[in-house]
Amino acid sequence: MRILLVKTSSLGDVIHNLPVVGDIRQHFPNVIIDWCVEESFSAIPRLHPGVNTVIPVALRRWKKNLFSMNTRREMAAFKRSISRLNYDIVLDTQGLLKSALLARQAQGVKCGYAADSAREPVAARFYDRVFSVAKSAHAVTRNRWLAAASLGYQPDQGIDFGLFSPSTAIAWLSATSFVVLLSATSRDDKLWPEAHWIALGQQLNHQGFTVILPSGSARERERATRLATAMPNAIAAPAMSIPELATLLAHAQAVVGVDTGLSHLAVALKTPTVAIYTATDPGLTGVLGSGYYKNLGGKGSVPDVQAVLAALQPLLG
Q1: What pairs with residue 55 in β-bridges?
Q2: DSSP string spanning 114-128?
Q3: What whole-number distance in Å separates Cα of residue 249 and Cα of residue 235?
Q4: What pLDDT digit, counting tens, does each position of 153-189 carry?
Q5: 110 and 55: one domain?
Q6: How many domains does the chain have?
Q7: Is 25 in the same domain as 147?
Q8: Model pTM?
Q9: Which residue range(s) make up the domain with 47?
Q10: Which end of the chain has fewer CB atoms surrounding its CB within 10 Å, N or C?
């Protein structure tokens, strides 16, 4: 049996789909699983030993130069890549029009969410078989239920993201006992106040931990540098690849993060994690895994520093 998973973005959504790989392989040990994913997140499924071939797609980049000759060549190459094999099942767990159209380019029975379950109901028109999955369930659970319905099995209770812990060298990292603070996210209303981060970082330093603040964009690096300057011995990390970030998160004593994909990556790597929510419902998209994790706050509810420290104490002593 050969299956193609279509889950292209964003980072958190891609991570939420990882348990599907283990579920399928548990029930079909000889299955071959390929995965179509946005190129910038392709390192995530490559961290799962159960994924055979990763098929990158560059929709985000192509949209910026849609009519260029190079874009057209890349789009043609992608179409050849995704359609060259016959799949038993092409499973779109994204439920968007763009993901459904990508799935249509592959050869095989297309499965996805029914119109009452898909994030974009029009996507259901492009599948051969559709299944209703409660929108009130967590994103990880929805992915697992859809895969189970498509392939005819019952998923187990436990969650296994299946990632191996990478060991990419990080030349600038000398600390052996550190806590990673993920202060950056895609929306300003998901941010935690800078004064809270500074107070948390100062307390962690007092307890003997080095604080490390990763960042992505230039704006995020400015913020990380500003925060690190106000925390004794803190490090504003340089730009890092996903494998480097995974290595950093996997070796941290603990991670504290806002609503961002890297918080989900930390939990997937079984690193103890405290996730802070200020604008979204953690019941639907909060961190979820098999190790130690805490979701604090929620839509319109900003947790204070003491709540975060209390959640960290079982980890830090």
Answers
A1: 36
A2: -TTTSSSGGGGGG-S
A3: 14
A4: 999 889 999 998 887 889 999 888 999 999 999 899 9
A5: yes
A6: 2
A7: yes
A8: 0.96
A9: 2-151
A10: C
